[in-house]
Fold:
Amino acid sequence: MVISELVKKQKCFFETGKTKDIDFRIESLNKLYKAINKYEGKIEEALKKDLNKSKFESYMTEIGITLSDLTFIKKRVKKWARDKRGLSPISQFHSKSFIKKEPYGVALIISPWNYPFLLCIEPLIGAIAAGNCAILKVSEDSVHTSKVITEMIAETFPEEYITVVNGDKEVTTELLEEKLDYIFFTGSPTVGKIIMKKAAQNLTPVTLELGGKSPCIVEESADLKVAAKRIVFGKYLNSGQTCVAPDYLLLQNSVKDEFVKYLKEYIGLFYTKEALRNEDYTNIINERHFNRLINLIKGEKVIYGGDIDRELLKIEPTILDKITLDSPIMQEEIFGPILPIITFDNIEEVKHIILQGEKPLALYLFTKNKKVEADILKNISFGSGCINDTIIQLATSRMPFGGVGNSGMGSYHGKYSFDTFTHEKSIVKKYNWIDLPIRYMPYNDLKMKLLKLFLK
Ligand code: NAD
Structure:
């Protein structure tokens, strides 16, 4: 269907008011839940084809986490959608104040390829819960998963309510020419800027879930064994193609040798000594990214891994030593299974390094030193993070997930997803039995005195 007609159709459907009905929203969430269960096998197959994701990883990081957020939201949406009472100031006597929750209208959700199911459906849950119509622009790089999502959504919802649009950036550009009511974008900061510029033409509100270089700090007081285990998990999951993966390691010199030994041990334990033959090890999404990543390894000091399988598009879990801020790998988000190590002697150096760059999407700090913890949390701005773990901060419906500055704006998950797709309309309902005269002309000294009493 022509895009402008599709948007028109959704706007007409939104205007019927059907999507605002709370029972309709809950019923739609139930339908989505059932559809995900029905399509579970197909989603897993598609993720295997796109990224060689194992069934376990597909469920843990895409299907399960989506269902869990859906259940959380479904249980609570009725309460969240209610009008919220506000207090009226005495100057507004006699009145009642309240906040009405209203959906924006037609929301466009643009998703990337790295968690192609989760990052498309999780924002959709928020859009439905808040009472919007939605157009999902799925990624052209994860073709199999995009195809299954298209089929699942078409079977579950009428296109005037929720629909999927496939295609490359030309299609996205066409969508962005339309006057939409909300844009929720997940992807790179570079494309995020294009989206925001386009949205500005119509003053469409946006949420930008972006990426960047997320530092991982290991300080000498840390439990080194546990730290190594958790960093290996967060870094090499999905072959490093995770927006919140630790991008680079800031490692205190005094514990370097021991820590690197543990890192190597855990990579061997998790992925075996021959990770490239491990059937559950994820591949790189396409040749373009594969070649980009190989170039980042070239000429660097590889202290673990480095082998590749061009046919399977796999790169071994790799560690690079002797990396400096000028190294090519430090100039862009890595988004692959390569961990560069930069060493430091004191925590002031760490702050200096991180503050030189853009505000990261995530930050991970491994320490038992409370002073160091307080110092980093107080003085460095980043989207979200963990103390003594990696990436798990996003696996909850009870906290907002989002970036700051170059890593994004806005947030979602749980109640924050509902809030993101909801406009809060403030209403003052005035009673007519009394009408305080102060604000009306003609003004005089007594009115001035009263005004100063009310407004101070
Ligand atoms: P991308 O920005 O290249 O593409 C994302 C989407 O934008 C795709 O649907 C694509 O079709 C569209 N697009 C690409 N170029 C466009 C253009 N010129 N105009 C309009 N639309 C365009 O990102 P990607 O490669 O799919 O994903 C990787 C990036 O996404 C990384 O930076 C990663 O950190 C980030 N990311 C962030 C999160 C998060 O939650 N913050 C999650 C996953 C990925």
Observations:
- The mean pLDDT is 97.
